[in-house]
Sequence to fold (350 residues):
Amino acid sequence: MNEKKIVRAVVVGGGAIAQRRHLPEYAANPNAEVAGIVDFNQERAKELAERFGGKAYASLEEALADPNVDAISVCTPNVTHAETTIKALKAGKHVLCEKPMAQTLEETRQMLEAEKESGKILMLGHNQRLIKAHMKAKELLTQGAIGKLLFFQCNFKHAGPETWSVDAGAGTWFFSKAKTNFGVMGDLGAHKIDLIRYLTGSEVKNVFAKMMTLDKRYADGSLIDLEDNAVCLFNMENGLPGIMHFSWTNYGQEDNSSVIYGTKGVMKIFGDYADDIVLEMRDGVQVKYTVGGIATNTNQIKSGVIDEFVASIVENRAPIVTGIDGHNTLAVIETAMKSSEEKRWLDIQY
Ligand SMILES: NC(=O)c1ccc[n+]([C@@H]2O[C@H](COP(=O)([O-])OP(=O)(O)OC[C@H]3O[C@@H](n4cnc5c(N)ncnc54)[C@H](O)[C@@H]3O)[C@@H](O)[C@H]2O)c1
Fold:
């Protein structure tokens, strides 16, 4: 890296997540700058370079060959995550890869291998653990605020990705099995699975899941060949059971809530949008915390992911979300898909 420790980052894939988080957050970080953008859509890349700085590279290879580039953000559809990440690590660049980490565990293993061989940082874009309310919740749980944990219930439900993607509509890559491998399970499930691992400090032991396709359709009117709803029962390795529901067919208010039940009371995180955390204690006392709110598809707030990635490079330390976090989360997703097919409980094979 240069003497001033400015991290010069190239964003690969200039779509919704790049425009709403990666590019503005690099541009606003005093230790980083946007070195450029790579996108199939050259017009988009040029327009973004004018807005955020750097150049529109003609290809990923051109960006990786540039010695002025320190880091790469992988913001392309999931099918390209593994290949792009591995090429970038091999080219000596630090990598921030969006979630889900890849399409298969075989790919995540290769990514971890490339990280090890390169000695560079690999961080995953699991932003839920960087949301202030979740960090506060972790602190409260660690202090025993609701006693011994008994059960968790997490939801992530919104109206679907076809209005979010920069190339919106029923033809979105989010509905293409070849480009994602997973539907809502990889898209929204990835967030809450990583979050519960973080909040409880435990890995998922086993899962029983049911995938459903209820309402999302291709342009010809046929149902998509990916799940638009998923319900999962889990047991954590520390013995804690829980349930999660992920949905792309919630046409009401977005639901991004987590409820954790303990022997002394209940913790509701984003149970409604008036308070970030509410503790409902067994004796009837309520304690409320307002600690920064939550981003929704229509109301973006700073994710903190880019700041953490830049800080981990500048300080030469592991980031708060590692490649192992991405791998272990994908292992749960992959096993949940298999559980739904086989209609039985399955242990996670990490
Ligand atoms: N962390 C989060 O909360 C969050 C939220 C949304 C999306 N994501 C993830 O971010 C990634 C991108 O999603 P999005 O919503 O921005 O998608 P999007 O459809 O809005 O944008 C994708 C962009 O990538 C470009 N592209 C596609 N293939 C490419 C390739 N091989 N090389 C270069 N450019 C290519 C497209 O032209 C488009 O500009 C996905 O992995 C998604 O799961 C994460």
The CA atoms of residues 121 and 229 lie 34 Å apart. The domain at 7-127 is CATH 3.40.50.720 (Rossmann fold). Residues 12-18, 38-41, 44, 75-78, 80, 98-99, 125, 127, 164-167, 173, 187 surround nicotinamide-adenine-dinucleotide (CB under 6 Å). DSSP finds ten helices and 15 strands in the chain.
